[in-house]
Amino acid sequence: MLTFIGLGLYDERSITVEGQEALRAADRAYAEFYTSELIGTTVSDLEDHHGVEIEVRDRAGVEQHPDEILEAAETEDVAFLTAGDTMISTTHVDLRLRAHERGIETRVIHGVTAQTATSSLTGLQNYRFGKATTLPFPYAHGADGLPASVTETIEGNRARDLHTVVYLDIKVGHERAAEDEYMTADVGAELLAAEYPDLVGVAVARAGSPDPLVEAATMADLAERDFGDPLHLLVVPGELHLLEADALVELAGADRENLEIA
């Protein structure tokens, strides 16, 4: 059995009760933290809290060399852990399909996602979010300006009056970074401001933690602010319903005059 368990958004306590029970009952546990990470804890704290040993795999160890995980799951109950919800990344879907090819039974135990938490924290209605995009560090995509994947997603969503979640790049073990690197909302806003300086954005920091932060302003304004410790993301709202506009003013300090209201 291979059980995929989402750990939630912040620390060792963010996991669901169902996920905790499955993790503690597993014979072996693997994890990856290159797609996202629990900023409020460490692997050691996870192990101590749940009474398990966890082997952390890098990208190659999951995507290119998953045989150890799959072979273990053929004879044992194996837990595979990720931050957030476990099936958001195609990496994990691929691993699940490889397990099915070997006749291994799989199970998915969900965790809270950054997008659902963002909807809750900002007051933007969840059904009005369109396609999400990821804003990479400039050195990671090697082109001048914003990647087309970012601009086309934002503009396509806005044309349909939908909100856009802009995930901010994480580089774990990248050869160009001396240490793990997390794009912050001010850096992301600065990159977006080159194309959209007067467009309102919403910065969400540390969703799922005891001290989440939500601030709405123009991209040029957000680029000048400090949002504290990671993880961060940005939202580009589409045209707002009146209740959504009220929420951004009350919950995120938005200037109502800058908002596009239906």
Task: Classify the fold: give the CATH topology of the largest domain.
Answer: Methyltransferase, Cobalt-precorrin-4 Transmethylase, Domain 2
Helix content: 25-40%
The Rg value, from CA coordinates, equals 19 Å
CATH superfamily of the largest domain: Tetrapyrrole methylase, C-terminal domain
Describe the main β-sheet briefly. 5 strands, parallel
Strand order of the largest sheet: 3-2-4-1-5
Number of separate domains: 2
The helix-and-strand class reads alpha/beta
The first-level CATH class name of the largest domain: Alpha Beta
Catalytic activity: 2-[(3S)-amino-3-carboxypropyl]-L-histidyl-[translation elongation factor 2] + 3 S-adenosyl-L-methionine = diphthine-[translation elongation factor 2] + 3 S-adenosyl-L-homocysteine + 3 H(+)
Binding site for S-adenosyl-L-methionine: 9, 85, 88, 113-114, 168, 207, 232
Organism: Natribaculum luteum
Subunit structure: Homodimer.
